[in-house]
Amino acid sequence: MTEEVVWDGSPGFRQRRYDTYEAYLEHQASKLKYIKLGKLANKYTPAFKAALAPRIEALKPLIDTNGRSVLCLGARNGAECEAWTESDFLAIGIDLNPGENNRFVVAGDFHALQFPEGVFDVVFTNSLDHVFELGRVVDEARRVLKPGGIFVAEVVRGSKDDNGREPGPYEAAWWDHASVVRDEIGRHVFDLVATNPFEVPWVGDQYVFRKPDDRRHESRAVPWA
């Protein structure tokens, strides 16, 4: 019998209810056991890399030409890390369960990154629908970015967006409109510099933010309510 999923929060942004944070971690880490890894490697990964490559190229004018370090949040098998690497970046991913023999992704929790402050030029993610607390993840992305670095959030379209959808069995957060996520990221002391729609691996919007190159802004971050 399938367990009923309970959602908390407002109609515009809701969060899957877990009894404990540990239950959330266990559920999210279990996804790797149920996806078809052969299909992921043979079909999904090449298609995603091919679609992501031109999006990365379009971002290059926004990135300091002396900066080439990228952290990919929720990177699973590392397809996005491969795409960034093939575009001449030094890329590393983090995921609760990167699986065995993953050359690109290390184990970790994007709510509490193990990396020091201000070391990455770019933070990339398309996994914000898997967060337990959006504000914590955004604050961690901001913390590890260098001043002037960019945060690239590819956000799936929500329940009431054009070409949107409903959450699947592993989404931990969901929204009516992708713009809700965009606006919350902006509240955490990021400046929106570009917006681009895309269709692979799902229909969504890419929001590109810059961390202000002014340390005086750091104290203005607003926790997720």
Specify the CATH architecture. Answer: 3-Layer(aba) Sandwich
Q: Report the β-strand fraction as a percent range.
A: 25-35%
Output the helix-strand order: EEHHHEHEEEHEEHEE
Number of discrete helical segments: 6
* Widest beta sheet: strand line-up: 5-4-3-6-7-10-9
Which CATH C-level class is it?
Alpha Beta
Which residues form runs of ≥5 with pLDDT under 50? Answer: 216-225
Model description:
By secondary structure, the chain is of the alpha/beta class. It has a single domain (11-212), classed as Vaccinia Virus protein VP39 (Rossmann fold), CATH 3.40.50. It is 29% helix and 25% strand. The chain has six helices and ten strands. The protein has a seven-stranded mixed β-sheet, sandwiched between helices. A three-stranded antiparallel β-sheet has the order 1-2-8, covered by helices on one side. Strand 9 (191-198) and strand 10 form a beta hairpin. Helix 3 runs parallel beside helix 4. It starts with 6 loop residues before the first strand and ends in a 15-residue tail after the last strand. The relative contact order is 0.15. Mean pLDDT is 91; it is low at 216-225.
